[in-house]
Amino acid sequence: MKVILSPRFNHVYGRESTCVRLSVANLCDIEKGRKGVSPKKAEQIALAIGVPPALLVRLALEESLKAAGLKYTVEIKPAA
């Protein structure tokens, strides 16, 4: 799996030419834990890098709950 961050165009490219608009500064903030990821952006990133979207969406939701001081786990599945 190859993920390329293009600082010139501020895009993350996944393996199937999927593109996620994400600035270098935002990506850095996410990596360092200074900024969270919305469930929608988590799904876009997952599709771009080739991992199951439900995984990253679940992690984004759990991180939001953790940041709010709530101790819950999240189980999700795609809507039918």
Describe what is shown at a glance.
This protein has three helices and three strands; from the N terminus they run βββααα.
SSE diagram, text form:
Blueprint lengths: L3 E3 L4 E3 L5 E3 L2 H8 L7 H11 L3 H15 L13
Antiparallel strand pairs: 1-2, 2-3
Helix pairs in contact: 2-3
Task: Provide an overview of this structure.
By secondary structure, the protein is α+β, with helices and mostly antiparallel strands. It has one domain (4-67). The protein contains three helices and three strands. A hairpin with a 5-residue loop joins strand 2 and strand 3. The longest helix is centred in the last third of the chain and has 15 residues, at 53-67. The radius of gyration is 13 Å and the shape is flat. Residues 1-10 have low confidence and may be disordered.
Query: CA-to-CA gap between the ends?
Result: 29 Å
Low-confidence stretches: 1-10
Count of discrete alpha- or pi-helical segments spanning 4 or more residues: 3
Helix share, percent:
40-55%
Strand content: 5-15%
Number of domains: 1
* Main β-sheet, spatial strand arrangement: 1-2-3
Radius of gyration: 13 Å
Q: What is the approximate shape?
A: flat
Strand runs, count? 3
Using brief descriptors, characterize the structure shown:
3-stranded antiparallel β-sheet; 3 helices; 80 residues; 42% helix; 11% strand; disordered N terminus; flat; alpha+beta
